[in-house]
Amino acid sequence: MPGVMSFPIEENAVGMFTRQIEWEKRKRVKEAAAAAATTTNDGGGKRPTSASSSSIRLAYKAKEEGKVVVYTTSSGIVRLTFYNCMKVKQILNTHMVKYEEKDLFRSAELQTELRDRIGCTAIQVPQLFVGGQYIGDADTVERLNESGELRRMLKPYQVIQDKSLLETSGEKK
């Protein structure tokens, strides 16, 4: 056809490049799945037993007594996950709670920590812990917030428990 140029070589190159990328993605997913399946926590190639899992949970509970910890990701690659992390942090901010955020995107060590704490190999964030006690994911936090139960759970962790202490002058007279 006059006026229409076709570049079959470039189309083939793009197709080859696309197939190469897809192949590499599948390879990385398989490697990650294999690595997750062989992750060791006790040096023996097995997931921890329920006895060691409970001791891990007790250790974290003692370490985080009086704290609110939320495991999140700062990666926006999966929008729903990123949105859920932002939603949980906003709920905590609305309740005026000081919390420690652990960003799994930046640390493989934190990913292993969360796997150990909740006892599963597949990680889904956000995950909330209050006083070392596992609360749940974004859906659970939202459900607890809607029912008013979250407010009761977070009351001891509020930064300012009495709003009447807030003054515009910044100093009490």
Automatic annotation (TrEMBL):
Stretches assigned to the Glutaredoxin domain:
68-135
Q: Which PROSITE patterns match?
A: GLUTAREDOXIN_2
One Pfam family it belongs to = Glutaredoxin
InterPro entries, alphabetized: Glutaredoxin, Thioredoxin-like_sf
Q: What is this protein called?
A: Glutaredoxin domain-containing protein
